[in-house]
Every structure is written in C-alpha cells, then in structure tokens.
Amino acid sequence: MASKRALFGTDGIRGTANTAPMTVEVAQKLGQAAGLYFMRNQSRRHSVVLGKDTRLSGYMIECALVAGFLSAGMDVILVGPLPTPAIAMLTRSLRADLGVMISASHNPFTDNGIKLFGPDGFKLSDEVEGEIEALMGEDLSGRLASPEQIGRASRLNDAAGRYIENAKASFPRGLRLDGLKIVLDCANGSAYRVAPTALWELGAEVIKIGCSPDGLNINDGVGSTHPEKLCAAVKEHQADFGIALDGDADRVLIADENGMLVDGDQILGLIARFWKQHDRLRSSTVVATVMSNMGLEKALSEVGLELQRTAVGDRYVVERMREIGGNLGGEQSGHMVLSDYATTGDGLIAALQVLAVSVETKKSASEICRVFEPFPQLLKNVRYSGASPLSSPELTAAKSWAEERLAGRGRLVLRASGTEPLIRVMAEAEDEALVVEVVDHVCDAIRAITGN
C-alpha cells in the first residue's frame, strides 16, 4: 500500500522559508531519506545534482540538503542557480541517482520549495514521494554512512553552458534568430544568465528585464505571473516578441509585437499544429489539464488531433504523455512539456519552438499565436477554514445544479488548491453570462457552507 503524503504537495515540498515544513531540519532529514532511498547499489558511489533559484533562503536550504545527502553517503554535485529543467537534464546527463531543485517556482521570495527528480530526469511519482516521506519519519541514525563512506561535495563549473547547448539544440538546424528583437523577462529568477545567452547566441537582439536578482526580488512584479511589464516593454522597444519566464523557468508566456499576451493554451495549439504539419507530433494527441480552454480542444479536433486532460500539475501531464507515447503537453499557465527535448516543463525550449515557427513561416507573432478563439472562462477562488467543503452534500448539490445548467454546453471544474486553503471554481462555455451565473452560484454555496 502506498505511503500517505503530508509534506509533499502537487510539486514537491513548499512553504514559507524558515517555517515548517521549509526548515533546515526538514531539508536535512529529506536529504538523508532521499539519499538512502536511492542508494540501492552499495558497490558504487552515488550522486545527486543539486540546483536552486535565486531566493535568499536557497543558501540555507542548500546547505541543509548537502549535509543530509553527505551524511547518507551520497556525493553532491552543486550547480548553483539554474532552471528546473536544467536540473532534470543534468541528472540524466551525469548519470546521477537523483536531482534536486530548490525553488518555489512562481511564488514570492518568502517561500521556497524542494522538487525531486529520479535518475531518468522525471519528477518522482506520488508513491515514491510517499515512501521517502515515510523514511523521514523514522530514526535513520543507524543507517547513515560510516566515517569513511561520508559523501563529497563538488561544484560543476560548466553546468550553465551544458544547459544552454541543450536548449539551443532544440532549435532547428539551419535557422537563426537574426533580425529579431526580443524582450526577455526572467522574473529575477534562475534563468537570468542562461536564457539571454541562449537567445543571443542564436542571433537575437535581447532586451533584458527581470535579470538582476538580489535574493529578494524573484517574481516581484515581473515574470510570467506579472506580464504587464513585459507587454509594455515590447511596445516601448517595438520588439518582435516578448518572452516571460517564471522564477524557476519551467513555464513561459509570450507577448506578440503588439504587446498582447499569449497564454499556454495558445502556445500548445501553435506547437501542436506546427509539429503535425512536420509529422513530429506523436499519437496525434496533446495532453493538457482540466483548466485548459475548450477552444483549444475544438481547434485541435478540427485538424484531427485529440486533447486529453489530466489533473492540474505538469507532473500529471508528463505521466499521461508517457502512458500514451505522446511528446507534447502543457498547462494554460505556461508549463510546456516537449519530451523530445526535456523531461519536465521548460519555458526556454518552448519559447524557442514558437520562435522557430515564426522564423520558418516568416510570419509575425500576432499572425501565428492566435490559434483559436477562447471560450469565455471564469475562475474564482474561495478561501475556507477548517475541513475542505469539497465533499459536503450542499456543495455536491450546487455542483449538480451547475452541471445541469451547462448541459453539455460547457464545463465546471472544482478543485482544492495544493498550497492554500482555497477552492478553485472554474467554468467555461460559449455563453459568457451562463459562465458567470454558474461560477457565482457555486462560490455562494461554498461561502454559505464555510460561513465566509
């Protein structure tokens, strides 16, 4: 039976830095437990690739993890600030047993998190995370390394260069970005050096914003969760494209030459159609989540492609892609998984695919990035205290009423946030008034149940 998870959420462990569970003690214990879990073959040395984003607390968590891994007998390869997909790539490339990224992704600097990757570069399953968490609850003192078996720590000085070359290799040979002016917003996060370099080496003129991290300004008014600055800069500089990454660069949003934002659904549709034309899309299927717009589903079906949906979280997208043998998936929020090139969401590689379409077709961003007309969609969050109201009879009744109102004309999605006491209520349909009516009705029901 799979072990229950209390520390691990939808994307690793996450919380306020220096407050449970994001403490030195938890990080050290995680290093010991994960190190012991992956040290299956005692006849050889074992290693872990350890990276981080630019948060001040990253130094603290990094040191605690290093101590934990070393005490378990695992060698640590330190790579410093790099995108999350770079850690996944390096884990496979270096034949390491484990990869670890210290990041809270798009959250503010006050938060931090720990994401784990297996030796294949894929995020760990719920079951494996549960087993590691169970180990953390045990007394491991008798299983730690003897003095002569304690691990060693070293720094991989060319880690950034390796990732840059890997990203550039995803861009079609024979094409360059010469003549393109690109505004690049790295959210003052982990891609602040590698992403501008990769685009510049491919020939683009790069205008940088959000590339001056100070430990406290990651995602602060910049990046994919705050794209206003990017859109304004595109118009100000009369650029051809805008690219916004988040703090750990596993998600991306695009702005066209008019400063109009392009979300993950439009990016998915664009890449899917382009790959289909070039016989590169496997299984004739794109994987997205329950949050992706019905307009994307309709647009894909019109060209003979299927959209399969999963729970929210790029790890679940990847799991479904592996099940069906697909090579393209993503989320509306900008996580794009292109498994020909990466094992997890990679904002830079996804952006390069969009740029490749523009260069090859000689069309502007606005011409290629409007793949479909989105259905009206409304998302509201309702905060609650105490137990989750999701399974209450009153909410079940409100949900049934809403689904009857939609009656095949739209969708309703209710889900609990993985990081906050929130119920997310989303509906979409071609009739915008109906969408508002349905969402408001369900939100009112939740407030009545919780007394908020």
Which characteristics define this entry?
single chain; 452 residues; alpha/beta; 6-stranded mixed β-sheet; 5-stranded mixed β-sheet; 37% helix; 20% strand; globular
Topology diagram in text:
Blueprint: E1 13-16, H1 24-38, E2 47-52, H2 58-72, E3 75-81, H3 84-93, E4 98-102, E5 111-117, H4 126-136, E6 153-155, H5 159-169, E7 181-185, H6 194-201, E8 205-209, H7 228-237, E9 241-245, E10 252-255, E11 261-262, H8 264-277, E12 285-289, H9 294-302, E13 306-310, H10 314-324, E14 328-330, E15 336-338, H11 347-361, H12 365-368, E16 377-383, H13 393-406, E17 410-416, E18 422-429, H14 432-450
Parallel strand pairs: 2-3, 2-4, 3-6, 7-8, 7-9, 12-13
Antiparallel strand pairs: 1-5, 4-5, 9-10, 10-11, 14-15, 16-18, 17-18
* N/C terminus separation: 38 Å
Give Rg in angstroms: 22 Å
Principal-axis shape equals globular
For the largest sheet, list the strands in their spatial order.
Answer: 1-5-4-2-3-6
Q: How many H/I helical runs?
A: 14
Structural class: alpha/beta
Mind explaining what this structure looks like?
The radius of gyration is 22 Å and the shape is globular. The protein has helices at residues 24-38, 58-72, 84-93, 126-136, 159-169, 194-201, 228-237, 264-277, 294-302, 314-324, 347-361, 365-368, 393-406, 432-450, and strands at residues 13-16, 47-52, 75-81, 98-102, 111-117, 153-155, 181-185, 205-209, 241-245, 252-255, 261-262, 285-289, 306-310, 328-330, 336-338, 377-383, 410-416, 422-429. It has a 6-stranded mixed sheet with strand order 1-5-4-2-3-6, sandwiched between helices. With 452 residues, the protein is α/β, with parallel strands linked by helices.
